[in-house]
Design goal:
This protein has 196 residues and is an all-alpha fold. It is built from 10 helices and no strands.
Length: 196
Amino acid sequence: MDEAPDAGELATRARLLRIARDCVTETGIEKFRMSSLYSAANVSRRTLYNYFSSKEEILIGVVELESDEFLYQLRSEMPSHATFSEYLVESLVYIVCNQHKQPCSSGLFASRSRLIGDLYRSSMRIHKNWYSLLEPSYTKAFAANEINTKLSLEKIVQWYGRLVLSYAQFPQQITDVEKLREEFQQLIVLGVKARK
């Protein structure tokens, strides 16, 4: 049975992920190599493999790290909204307009690598982050009968993630934020609001 990592191991893992993010940002996803990471981190190859079994595991960790930081920023900058629909719209607008600020994730998306979809689908932590972002306002709206009762939070999180991924994989220069907001409002009103 594996023992839980201690604080020192967690700190080392976090340090390696920050350095990996810097390496990917500097070289790009295609040129990122494990050897550049253990060199930049000043650790042996064996030490690196004690923390990560593969390049893919490191990239998942880096994307999770960026996701954690990005969602923390999103929560701190999102004003409270009267309805769940408004919260969905405004959080989507924020994400689409600011996701380019995640250098590693943006690089992965720009590479059009199939790996990015696999990374997001396989990361339970990212899924839990989306879930915890939406759960409070969903619960409130569900109790107030403001949501289509056929839509579970799980389905909304999956839909939300797909929408975010589609904008990330095919980034556009957003020149009209109000138009983007209107598009999201139309989509969400049709899909989320309770049927009368």
